[in-house]
Amino acid sequence: MRAQLLYFDGCPNWHVADARLREALRMVGSDAKVERVLITTQEQAEHWAFHGSPSLLLDGQDPFAQPGAPVGLSCRLYRTANGVAGSPTMEELVAAIQSASSPQLAENGPQPTRAIRRSRRRSAPLSPL
């Protein structure tokens, strides 16, 4: 299995995601190494289909990606059983790895929680009533 962690400098959550991904791989008995991929430009974000930092790819697929989610240099948050977090939980990562490793499970896809994005856009000013 190939495991990649996509992130950008300044992301407060990529270190946690990296540690959890490494531990989840160890827990399932995988000897896969985690390749870190630093995303620095919008062009790289588009090339990698980067849905925000941190993003995880297992054999080139983002098991937590939502259909139609935009790509770009932004923070990525995950809805977990424990609430919104900056990284999937250990349990979600183990399930995603097992799903990516098993052809039968891969047909149905992993069942991770939905990822949400925190935009860096400013909201429009309110108009007077």
Tell me about this structure.
Helices cover 30% and strands 21% of the residues. With 129 residues, the chain is an alpha+beta fold. It has a single domain, classed as 3-Layer(aba) Sandwich (Glutaredoxin), CATH 3.40.30. Helix 1 packs across helix 3. The longest helix has 14 residues, at 14-27.
Overview features:
single chain, 129 residues, alpha+beta, Glutaredoxin, three-stranded mixed β-sheet, 21% strand, globular, disordered C terminus, Alkylmercury lyase
CATH topology: Glutaredoxin
Distance between the termini: 57 Å
CATH class: Alpha Beta
Integer average pLDDT: 83
Strand content: 15-25%
User: Main sheet, how many strands, which sense, barrel?
Assistant: 3 strands, mixed
Order of helices and strands: EHEHEEEHHE
Number of strands: 6
Task: State the low-pLDDT regions, or none.
Answer: 104-129
- Broad structural category: alpha+beta
**What does the overall shape look like?**
globular
Helix content: 25-40%
Q: So, CATH architecture?
A: 3-Layer(aba) Sandwich
Put simply, the count of helices is 4
Topology summary:
Blueprint: E1 3-7, H1 14-27, E2 34-38, H2 42-48, E3 55-58, E4 75-80, E5 83-85, H3 90-101, H4 103-108, E6 115-118
Parallel strand pairs: 1-2
Antiparallel strand pairs: 1-3, 4-5, 4-6
Short précis:
This protein has 129 residues and is an alpha+beta fold.
